[in-house]
Amino acid sequence: MYYLYILSVLGLSATGLRLENESSTLLTKPDEIAIPSQEEMDAILAEIFEEVESAEKADFEFAWEEAENSTTNHTVDGSEITPEMVDQILAEIDKDDDIGLEVDWDWEEDGEQNDTACTFSTVATSLPEWLADLRNFDHSSCKDFGPRFGAWGKSACGSLPSIISDVLAESKEASGGKSGTKPLVSSRYVVKLMDEIEHNMLNKLLRELRGSRRLTLLAPTCRSLAFQVGSTTHYVQIAANLAMRGAQEELYSRIFDLKGNHLWKYRKADSKNDFVMKDVDFKATFPKGINISQVMLPGKHLSQDSYVGEEAADFFARTLYTDGKLLARLGLMDYSLLVHVTSVTGRSGLTALNTDKPTAYAVIRTGGEDELFLLSFGIIDLLMHESENRGFMNKLAFTMTLSECRVTELDPIPAFPYWIRFCRMFGMRMAYSNSKGTCTSCLHERRSQSYTYFPSAWALKHAQEHHSCNASRGR
Fold first, then answer.
1. Which DSSP string corresponds to 104-145?
2. Domain holding 247: CATH number?
3. Spatial separation of the C-alpha atoms in residues 378 and 337, rounded to whole Å
4. 282-294 pLDDT, tens per residue?
5. Same domain assignment for residues 69 and 190
6. Residue 17 above 50 pLDDT?
7. 229: DSSP letter
8. Where does the record locate the signal sequence feature (predicted)?
């Protein structure tokens, strides 16, 4: 994942600042972990078998107090969510959820575009050389896909010449991987190679977004390029960088890559080698979650639109929910919510430096006092289809999880359950009527497992509706 290298490239780091929960208990840094040995992996698999067996026998209930008095039958029969069920379920639940998320302006250039990548022939052999070669080509017809992603994409994606100049002047190759093919990261853009499958999925996503006027938190793809080197075609994606500029001046700065499985014990960062934190680390750092108090978005005229108070958290949850539903319809999974959290001292002018991306304010307790923090966020890594089982662990996950979406499970899982678990991060506990007519869910969440990363009233309201299965039963 290309965002794993952002902190190292931009010089961001976390200091010794310790965050506290509301009861002022000091939090510690995540424990160091080692790469599991074969014996440890065997133990992991044994735990998975044990948990699946336990889930089939136990009667799990949803972990939220507001639904305790519900009379609906919430039993879990352990049956798998079949592909045939997905379209029907998606068509039935929350039919009107997109209402209120549309904007009232039009980008003319979006309607004139097709969805093909700009193709160039070159003898160069590396990603930086390919970008440099673009200066010698006529790229006036290359499509700007930023408008597909609304005002965020329009604001974040510059002209191709400006992107090339920015990336070549400022970016560094990420560590790891073969030289010449590593992602290039600048403060504004991330440039990475795609394989043909990812390229095809990007085309599919861009077609789906064509003409869309819905606000979105999907990380914008600015350009899709193809470089023909002999008989081989190399596909390149240029995307907006979500990390905040100026954060290196702050006392605290940390990036989290979140997928929703905060109880999967290997979903945590190696404190020696990883610059990006994960779900286990997020829960340890923010044991009561993060309450968002204001959301700022790029606006129509490249200004900022703002949502304040309860409306801010509700907008955050509602938009992520609808974005996830779109990805589920396309069969996409293994995406992440990337969140950059940094302190705000007023020294760096963070807000003014980052008007081209979604940001939010949140008050978090540190050192016994409430401190103001700034977040940037978006959904990244959008191009893996559920039919792709890459490598042993992917195949194992697909086979072993039985399409479940427990917060204790490893990645990846099929697209529909993956979306349900993704929504659980901001309070959604979705239930649905399965093929047997039973109101069920793949979360199987015990009270001891309950954790909401970003609480909101909107998510709670919709969780109650889904919990009763009224929406999925058509009542």
1. S---HHHHT---PPEEEE----SHHHHHHHGGGS--TT----
2. 3.30.810.10
3. 6
4. 999 999 899 999 9
5. no
6. no
7. E
8. none
Q: How far apart are CA 344 and CA 252, in angstroms?
A: 9
Q: What is the pLDDT of residue 403?
A: 66
Contact 420, 443 (CB under 8 A): yes
| Structural domain containing residue 431 | 34-93+243-473
Which residue among 215, 240, 265 closes a domain?
A: 240
Predicted confidence at residue 395, as pLDDT, reads: 65
Tens digits of residue pLDDT in 374-392: 999 999 999 999 887 666 6
In a domain, 98, yes or no: no
Residue pair 375/214 in contact by the 8 Å Cβ criterion: no
Q: How far apart are CA 138 and CA 161, in angstroms?
A: 11
Do 232 and 285 sit in the same domain of this protein?
no
**Average pLDDT of span 119-140:** 88
Rounded to whole angstroms, the Cα distance separating 405 from 62 reads 13
Please state, for a pLDDT cut of 70, what percent of the chain lies above it: 65
Nearest 5°: the CA angle 402, 73, 446 is 55
Residue 474: other Cβ atoms inside 10 A: 9
Strand 304-308 and strand 384-385: the pairing is: unpaired
Q: How far apart are CA 285 and CA 28, in angstroms?
A: 8
Residue 221, by phi and psi: left (phi above 0), alpha (psi -120 to 50) or beta?
beta
The alpha-helical segments, DSSP class H, found in 391-431 are: 391-400, 415-424
Q: Report how far apart, in Å, the C-alpha atoms of 50 and of each of 45, 106, 400 are.
A: 9, 53, 11
* pTM over 0.85, yes/no: no
Give me the pLDDT at residue 189, please: 95
